[in-house]
Amino acid sequence: MGLTAAFWIMAVVAVVAALGVVFLRNVFRAALALVLCFITVAGLYITLSADFLAAVQILVYVGAISVLIILAIMMTREVQQGSPSNRMKLPAFIVAAVLLGIMIYTVTKTSWQIAAESPLTPTTAPLATKLFSESGFILPVEIAAMLILAAILGAIVIAREK
Amino acid sequence: MTIGLEHYLVLSAVLFCIGLYGALTKRNAVIILMCIELMLNSVNISLVAFSSYIVPRALTGQVFAIFVMVVAAAEVAVGLAIILAIYRRFTDVDANNINLMKW
Description:
The complex is a heterodimer.
Chain A: H1 2-23, H2 27-47, H3 51-76, H4 89-109, H5 124-132, H6 138-159
Chain B: H1 5-25, H2 29-53, H3 60-90
Helix pairs in contact in B: 1-2, 2-3
């Protein structure tokens, strides 16, 4: 019962915050709505018993990415008042609505094979074994580390003053 | 009414389509980047939901979600650096006016 209530509250707040990101006129307020959306997604991870991912979501998205985005808004805010739309409003709305209809139809018509056992909790130790063991995902972890390094170097080179 | 896999998937689809609409229509490059983050987040929700409902003991969906987060962090760092470089060069972040590489 508590889980159901938590899911509905999180879902409504997440959708409202996402609509706020798209439709708020003030860019800074849109960024704050995005932070609210990130926080509710972390709550949704908790209702899915993914505790480690919820903590990572708070740390990475709410802590780091939103700060980066707000910094970028602060540095570029005086050039453009508000967040105007281009002329593709109606076609984009049709594309998004059709895609949403197709996805909802497919999801509700498919008979998912729900597993009977309850999910693992806590997930931190099993995730570490999964990621770092020999038979696990150790090679993708190393590749992700290289990707992050390349992204840091690229960001520094691109954003540096000549 | 208990919460099932479909609820999470439909929520994820709704968030994805809101993000898609924003990414297609907005003219401010920072807002476009924010909408892309929204779409990546909604995909993460569906991955974690699949992981905890279909293979609850295997955690593969959560591992995938971690890699999506890594790629999203790299993407936002490079994307914001590009936006700041464009802003310094043209003093503009309007995606309609940045058409230097348009053929």
